[in-house]
Amino acid sequence: MSITLRPTRSWIALTTLTLFTAYSHVHAVPTYSLTEIGTVTSDPNSHSYASRINDRGQILGANWSPHTLTKFIWQAGVTRELNLTENGNTFFLSALNSAGVGVGFAQSNDQAGPALWRDGHVVYLPAPGGPTDYRLATDINDLGEAVGFAYQGYLSEICYGLLWRNGTPIDLSNLGGKITLPIDINNRSQVVGTATTADGTEHGFLWDNGTITDISHPNAAAIQIGGINDRGQVAGTWRDSSGTENAFLWQDGHMIDLPLLPGDVWSGAYGINELGQIVGISGKDYASHLVIWDNQCITDLTCLIDAASGWIFEPSGINSDGWIIGTAHAAGHDYGFLLRPVPEPHSIVAVCLTMLLLLSRRPTRHLTDAR
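Below the sequence we write its predicted structure tokens.
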């Protein structure tokens, strides 16, 4: 005799209803866990900040006091102080890609300028300019391509935007003005930043395969770029003639003003991840809230963090897991912070439902009598 054992539709429906009934009684407000980043000294007068985060969860930041500045990398709860001095070279790290390769500025007795930092070793990047000019690499993608600038001051006051590919510099052109300042590069080799027009107005720009595109707003007196993702979406902030700032998303050649929290009058966008989530602030007067825009919908994150912290948050980036970093202010001090989204109960329900669906599709099993 053969007996077929399989979950029936009624059993699946009953279990599903039970799970959703249980879930309906659970408080489903999303929360974020808050972690202080960058405590590498016991100096009570020290401050810290977190400036960059990659998709491996590595955070680049610095700790400073009246007499010292210490760079660090934080990962999985461990803060590693960076020894950025090698063979007489001192290196200042400004960005880190997912392979752990950094870029920034290096100097020694013989030379100074933009450089790569790989496995603790410094490699200088060629750039135009002389010993009195300032040159810096600002970002690096996972392909190892770096962007930065060479500023020639004094009489010329010209800033060249540069992309280093295989160690060779490429001029990023301009928008008719004297300054092109790259901020970010994605894994499609698209570069974004700020550039001046012929009349000196600050616009945003997108450089893509040799073509530079103006990112502007009809009411903007200046534009600041926050970042670009691999989908080519750009986040940033435009400022009007009165000084009021407004967060925006730029995609497919169109600029979209992002919404404010109710009652607020200004906002700013400082980072975007591969999901299109944008992190920034929304505020009025001198008070601001940490916010995230997802599909152009705004969420106040400040109210999702333990109010007892008393921190005021200024974000600087977000990775593809939704981890948010930046600098928080509390009790007269600055602290680097990390916010990580805590999974909501409904995600657990989704896993359970997926398991039920898989069970319902498993092959039929047979138990045969011993005869």
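The chain has a mean pLDDT of 83.
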